[in-house]
Amino acid sequence: MCAYKGRASYWSMTDGNALVDVAWTWEPLADAVPVKDMAAFFTERLDLTLDEVAVPRPITPWS
Fold it and tell me: Were 63 and a residue from 19, 23, 33, 44 both cysteine, which residue would form a disulfide, CB within 3.0 to 4.6 Å?
């Protein structure tokens, strides 16, 4: 819970292997209404391809 943005919900996936907390969404308060109904992804935990080119995973505290 964030006093400015609201409550975050974390999403997990499985494709035979559990991928825990790979995305999150907000139940926004007034300051975060522009992100309502959007999802953000932890690119540190997923394989990302952009225009058919693999993007390296960043190294962050959430890796």
Answer: 44
Rounded Cα–Cα distance for residues 61 and 44 (Å): 9
Domain-located, residue 61 = no
Amino acid, res. 57:
R
Radius of gyration of the chain (CA): 14
How high is the pLDDT of residue 17?
79
Domain assignment present for 16: yes
Write down how long the chain is: 63
Please state, in angstroms and rounded to a whole number, the distance separating the CA atoms of residues 5 and 17: 31
Environment class of 10 (CB within 10 Å of its CB; exposed 0-12, middle 13-18, buried 19+): exposed
The answer to whether position 19 is within a domain reads: yes
Hey, how many other C-beta atoms are within 10 angstroms of the C-beta on 22?
A: 17
Q: How many domains does the chain have?
A: 1
